[in-house]
Amino acid sequence: MSNQTTVTEFLLLGFSDIRELQILHFVIFLAAYLAALMGNLLIITIVTLNCELHSPMFFFLINLSIVDLGSIAVTVPKSLSNSLLNTRLITYSGCVAQVFCLLCFLGANLSLLMVMAYDRYIAICKPLHYGIIMSRRACVQMAASAWTASVIYSALHTGSTFSLPFCHSNTINQFFCEVPQLLKLSCSDTYRRELAALAFSVFLALGCFVFIVVSYVHIFTAVWRIPSEQGRQKAFSTCIPHLIVVSLFIFTGAFAYMKPTSYFPSSLDLLTAVLYSVVPPMVNPFIYSMRNKEIKCALRKLLQRQMLSKNRMSLSTLCVWFTTLFL
């Protein structure tokens, strides 16, 4: 048997054969995509334009927003176009690019969430050493390490996956190219090595989750010593949603990559994929940023500045019009 793939294109999961349901899927996914797009772009704009927000926490928030933009842009637009055009096709090269980019952004997401938890731990538990530990150079090195490790991991994982021959079928029971679904199509016994790599990836992700939880346990312990009841409630109301989002992202992703793949379309597989690939980029801007007092204040100032600039522009236009009229 030839060890070269016989597949030149794949068929992604179609949500329905009924045209009205395809349009409904398009509208729902488009709303989620636009919400993620606007929320994350707003965070990037606010933090970039406001010098007061040029701190380590907001530096990592910008990186997280870039990751969220990338991860949802990898999967949702193709699904939207397929629903709109009533097709299911994705090319082989398109599938390779989708797997590589998605793994890269998911890996960077997990790494940045771990770095952000560490940043909050230093800020709350060791405030006197915060400026030394979380210096500008250290922050850039942490972010660069997160991105570099994600790119290397994604390249190795993608290369290993697509080195396998695909000859059982070309139908992927998911709305994007997902690695477990691709392994199911392999006709080579060596796919078990890729399954072992998947298991290692999941355990690595769970290790990152343990690190995040331990960081938040130290944070909660320090917060509990705060004499102000209002201060404790504010800290808990900020940290608990962070943990919920992290838990949702990691456990749904681990479940999707570790559970036995079905040879038929499954509603559970679809729900799990949406929960780890679509929901986090949509809710992260609101959980991590819009609940933040500094972000709200900066947004208010930005809106006021825009209103003033518009008023000045309209006033200057009116003066020019009157001058032209009388001259």
How confident overall, as mean pLDDT?
Answer: 82
Q: What ranges have pLDDT less than 50 throughout 5 or more consecutive residues? A: 318-327
Distance between the termini: 88 Å
**What is the rounded Rg?**
23 Å
Looking at the structure, what is the overall shape? globular
- What is the strand tally? 2
Helix fraction bin: over 70%
Query: Percent of residues in beta strands?
Result: under 5%
Give the spatial strand order of the biggest sheet.
Answer: 1-2
Largest sheet: 2 strands, antiparallel
Account of the 3D structure:
The protein has 327 residues and is mainly α. Helices cover 77% and strands 2% of the residues. The protein has 11 helices and 2 strands, in the order βααβααααααααα. It has helices at 19-49, 56-85, 92-125, 130-133, 136-162, 179-184, 191-224, 229-258, 267-277, 279-290, 293-326, and strands at residues 9-11, 89-91. A two-stranded antiparallel ribbon has the order 1-2. Helix 1 (19-49) packs antiparallel against helix 2 (56-85). The protein is globular and about 65 Å long. The termini are far apart. The relative contact order is 0.13. Residues 318-327 have low confidence and may be disordered.
Strand and helix layout:
Layout: E1 9-11, H1 19-49, H2 56-85, E2 89-91, H3 92-125, H4 130-133, H5 136-162, H6 179-184, H7 191-224, H8 229-258, H9 267-277, H10 279-290, H11 293-326
Antiparallel strand pairs: 1-2
What are the defining features of this structure?
327 residues, mainly alpha, 2% strand, disordered C terminus
Summarize the structure.
The protein is mainly α and 327 residues long.
